[in-house]
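Continued from yesterday's entry.
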Amino acid sequence: MASNMSSDSYGRFLDDLKEWIQSAQLRAATAVNRELVTLYWRIGCAILAKQQQEGWGAKVIERLSKDLKHAFPEIKGFSRSNLLYMRAFAQAFPDETVIQAVMGQITWYHNIALLDKLKANEERLWYAQKTIEHGWSRSALVHQIESGLYQRVGNAVNNFDHTLPQSQSDLARQILKSPYNFEFLELAEAAQERDFERALVDRIRDFLLELGVGFSFLGSQYSLEVGGKEYKLDLLFYHVKLHCYVVIDLKMVEFEPEFSGKMSFYIAAVDDLLRSEIDNPTIGIVLCKSKNKATVEYALRYIQHPVGVATYRLKDTLPEPLQGSLPSIEQLEMELNTLPVEAIMDSTKDD
């Protein structure tokens, strides 16, 4: 029997079916993952209880591993090391509601990374929630932990409390970090601000990853005409969650009070020339090599536009106790200039 369905109608019908199937697959995978993580937690709780009640030693875990593998040869995950992780997991999170609400929403390998890399449960929960929110892979999670994201988020000095509505200011603070981690850049000692800007644009994927979810790059040296004169913004973004333009001004020196006035001018220009009725107020971020908190607070106190001031760190930055005790970048380059870059960079291995 000939079909009366048009090709367009059939295509839409097929797309709907695909969407239903994919949604069902995702829900099933999420449910299976949650059950697996919950199972591992319960095994860990049981091991803890037996060790505490009957004084079982570490050898019991090795015996359990052999017996469980023999009973369930088709199931992986009962190695001695994994059973020890189950025990540590249960010890770290004794409340099952936390497992169901948060930890069960990420994979077991994400949970192992949190156990390995962090000691404080507050940080573990924060990174777990960010993993759920942003869909981080395990390697992305490890990268964010090793970059100290927890300590950096919301650490920039800003005036959002009195320049933005509360709902907007809370979210705006969360998109700011200090310091930003630009260790992926290769900058010479004599680099100028335009070199800094070009390097960030050349590595825009890494730059956007460090800025965080929601930033959409609109351009560098973005031109605006005000009063018949051309002004150029170092970097212009649009933030899709905040629904606003974000202007970034790069400085390779310590913060100076006049930087906030210049940023206020840029924000006013963007608000007038680019912002539409559906956009929220434009936000400015001044990225400086260093800053004095009191100086920044004074500089922003009477600024009427939302401005944040953050610092950044580059690849050749060393902790103060190590400065002077290690060779300089120039010395390393002179001695190792015959080696490939990979040979002189630190690397981490993913389990």
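--- second protein ---
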Amino acid sequence: MAQTYQVVVTSQAEKSLGVIVSYLMETASYEVAERVRAGIIEEIRGLSAMPQRHGLLQGVDDLLITYRRVLKWSYRIIFTVEEETFLVLVVDIDHGKRNPEELKNVLL
């Protein structure tokens, strides 16, 4: 049986999700914003099982930390996996078209 990982969402990731939801409420509708929020949260919960199955985040080089990403629609959930403690740390959530340099400023 596969190990279950604890999933922790950082304050940065929570803030990013809030920005996404607020933007969608203003530009689309409450229903769209809620559907996106719920979908992202569901995807985050799914990281508790085999988080390594998701691809590496390209364009962010850090010798000490390996970043992974999972896509939910056009959004990236960016996370790290700590194998020794079976911990998944969600560090940010962004739009897949975000400027890589902006992302580096958040992560590095």
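The radius of gyration is 14 Å. The longest helix spans residues 11-27. Will compare against the first tomorrow.
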